[in-house]
Specification:
337 residues, eight-stranded parallel beta barrel, 10 strands
């Protein structure tokens, strides 16, 4: 019998599903700890709960870019089975970009889930990065891109349309800095980034571009990493108000608050399971549930809710577990049916 993803997800739904948290680290000891924590949460929940992005852009000491890239390759190759490991390379106009791509994509491409490219300004930058991937023999790798300037925000829809791009992230700090003091520093904080009109407009443009082309919008960092309640509140607003389905973490303490904030309520999970179980029994024809008509439009919504519940560690009702596991808890991949 066809899987719900095959039946329900098409041109009007997101083409891929990624973990809701993307955790960044660039210093060797922190990169190793991040990979260890990823393995621990995988064992706890039965599948990979967050991506680990090994950072070259901010993590590599000046003059030691090639050595840092080699370290990223080593860590990616040593990651546990089932790990989702990515690398953020330097921007396409940085002198280290070509080496980053040749070394990291060329030597560790089979161990990576994607490459993150920062400071993308246009589709030309995406094409430049794509050609570097092809030269490195890593044609299978998707690109995640970071939009960080007002000009780049204008190109968000064109960038999202490129088939190599899987996700777009918003670079808050550089975006604010690019305005020459016209946006106050408070807009980089946990409260200001949700209230300043130019920042909110940029976030919405990126989210809309991603959803228009079936890509994943990834929300920016919260620098107040010691405040778990502020982190949870920011993640909740990113998910419920701005349409983001993924968010950056820059400290291990932020990972579980992000997972919790992006998780649907258990009552919603149970409702989705009831509706989809009845829909499957009706061969996905329209049904009535609690006096409400449902068809494939609402089925699609509830299916995506179940996927997000699984990604965030919510308990799934027994009736729908068969769609996520083939017998072992680690069998589910967030990108395949």
């Amino acid at each position: 019998m066809p899987h719900p993803r095959e039946i329900l997800l098409g041109a009007q739904a997101m083409a891929c599903s990624l973990p809701v948290c993307d955790h960044y680290s660039g210093v060797e000891v922190r990169m190793r700890k991040s990979l260890q924590l990823q393995a621990e949460l995988t064992a706890e929940f039965g599948h990979c709960m967050f991506d680990v992005t090994l950072d070259c852009e901010d993590g590599a000491p000046v003059g030691q870019e090639r050595a840092h890239a080699a370290l990223v390759v080593q860590l990616a190759q040593q990651a546990a089975p089932g790990a989702r490991v990515a690398a953020r390379v330097h921007a396409v106009d940085h002198p280290a970009f070509a080496d980053d791509m040749a070394v990291i994509a060329g030597e560790a491409g089979q161990h990576l889930c994607h490459i993150m490219v920062p400071k993308v300004e246009s589709v030309d930058d995406v094409l430049h990065a794509e050609q570097a991937l092809l030269r490195a023999g890593a044609a299978h790798l998707p690109l995640h891109v970071l939009i960080e300037s007002p000009a780049a925000v204008q190109q968000a829809f064109a960038i999202a349309a490129h088939p190599r791009v899987q996700s777009i992230s918003f670079g808050l700090m550089d975006f604010v800095s690019a305005h020459g003091g016209a946006i106050p520093a408070s807009a980089m904080g946990v409260a200001g980034q949700f209230s300043h009109p130019l920042v909110v407009r940029a976030k919405l443009e990126i989210a809309a571009a991603c959803h228009a082309h079936g890509k994943v919008p990834s929300h920016c960092v919260v620098t107040e990493f010691t405040d778990a309640s502020a982190m949870h509140a920011a993640a909740s607003r990113a998910a419920s108000e701005l349409g983001y389905t993924r968010m950056w973490s820059i400290h291990p303490a932020q990972i579980r608050p992000i997972l919790a904030a992006f998780a649907p309520a258990q009552g919603e999970v149970e409702q989705a399971a009831r509706i989809l179980s009845a829909a499957a029994a009706a061969d996905w024809a329209p049904i009535s549930s609690a006096g409400v008509l449902h068809d494939r439009a609402s089925y699609r919504y509830y299916w995506q809710l179940l996927e997000r519940a699984h990604q965030t560690g919510r308990a799934l009702p027994e009736a729908v577990q068969r769609w996520f596991y083939d017998g072992s808890p680690s069998s589910f991949s967030s990108e395949s049916p």
